[in-house]
Amino acid sequence: MSVHSSKQNRKQAVLVLGMHRSGTSAFSRAMNVLGFDVGRNMMPASEDNKKGYWEDLDIVDYNDKLLSQYYAAWDSPGILRFLNRDDSSVVEEKNEIRALISNIFPNKTRIAIKDPRISLFSPIWRECLKEAGFTTKTILCLRHPQAVANSLNTRDRFSDLKS
Predict the structure, then answer these.
(1) What is the pTM of this model?
(2) Which residues are paired to 111 by β-bridges?
């Protein structure tokens, strides 16, 4: 490997993806312990997640805003129809994601981004991270669906069917 190619790969990003209550917070915290920056405006711990969520609220807020533009929310059932890559409206979303990345992670070379909502938008996030010079890897957190449903029932009173 040449010195030039190793410099190109110095910026690393990890996307921690998965359903809510599937272990994404634990993996995001692990990435932070391994030296990856996870943001600066952290969602505070709560009774439901006493060790913290390890996700940046600015990213969560943006993804909620993006979902609402498609008349959806994080718990909307079904498949979200999003991002016709030739659609000119994607330009604005890319610009906003690029701005988030540069504002939240200025001069960072090892970052981890966790928000279960990104699972719905990962192609555009990956593209923007690549444009920012990051090599991106994905951690997909999986937990037995019934365990997720049970946890969502306890936290949000969701039925198994909704979960």
Answers:
(1) 0.83
(2) 13, 37
